[in-house]
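Record pair follows.
FIRST:
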Amino acid sequence: MWQVVSFDDVGRCVRMASLGLEIMTFNRTIISLERNMYAVIAADGKQYRVAKGDVIQLESVKVGVGESVNFDKVLLLANGEEVTIGTPYLETVKVSGEVIDHKRGEKIRIIKFKRRKGHMKRAGYRARFADVKIIDISTQVTKTAKTAKAAEPVQPVETKKEIKATQVDIGARVVKKRKQVETASGNQADQATQSSEIES
């Protein structure tokens, strides 16, 4: 998708150049190729729409400046007009970023007051944020255990008739084995009585 920008909008041109967008000049008009690949990731209990070069603020990132952060919970991937939605996540898509700064947010002032009681309590809170720059959105398919299992030949499922036949066969074997055990124990008892009669 092409985007036409006025040549006088210098700030926007600088921002586009810093994001690595292709910029061409034609008759004092800048034509840039707009980013068209983006992803929706889940982090900090929220959802973020990110593209390569974006900077987002996250609270739960505990790594140092310059270290990489990987986001596995990708809900959606859009590449031009092709949109892929996860159920709930896309296992083959991975978004990687880099921590560029740690900051603290504006102070939130808290006051607890009870009238006619002489009670007033003040407190303040400043949330800690990490600025994360999105480096890459990779869509490489990695061979996981699930795909390896799926590649194995699938054994045919037994029908109800086959299951009943095997159950009957197993039942007949069990009954036959029981009869053999009973006859063997009966034979042993007969032999014991005969031996006792002979001794007496």
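SECOND:
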Amino acid sequence: MIIVPGTLFVDSHQREGKAVKSSWLECSIGRFNVKYLHLNSLQDGQYKGFFTIAQIIQGCYDYNGKYYFEVEAILNEIAFTYPTNSLTDVPSLVKEKRVEKTSDNKEPLGKNKNTLLEEDAPDDEDLFGSLWPLKDQVKLDTTYDRSRIRAQCERLKQLGYLHNAEEQVWYKAV
């Protein structure tokens, strides 16, 4: 294992009709495509920090009859750093973002937010398992498979939670 400082870039796009997240790490030893278990919990953007690389491998895939080879880094851990603005006061940050979100009112006709949350409650219990009922801070269980973690992240966004990438915790917006 090796720990390197660098920048992680995360991007979402459509591939063959599916939403796909891709990421790459730029650091002092090179540029790598990234394999990381919690990639789906990160939002699009750039993340500076220290990255624990467990393994560097050669990956390949074919597309339209051609083979593409790339260097991949398998990450174990990420420790984010924010040199210009630290996230020491997370609740105030969450409040500021919530004000921006509530400015556009796009609720379905005939339904308010409370009825939407009540209708999906039984599914949420199955989706979140031992984390249900959700608290103001939610740390997802990483032992679940990627599709379940992806579904949990999408549901948390719908419920008004915001993700703090530095702590890997979801906070309920107030």
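COMMENT: The chain has two domains: 2-80, 90-172.
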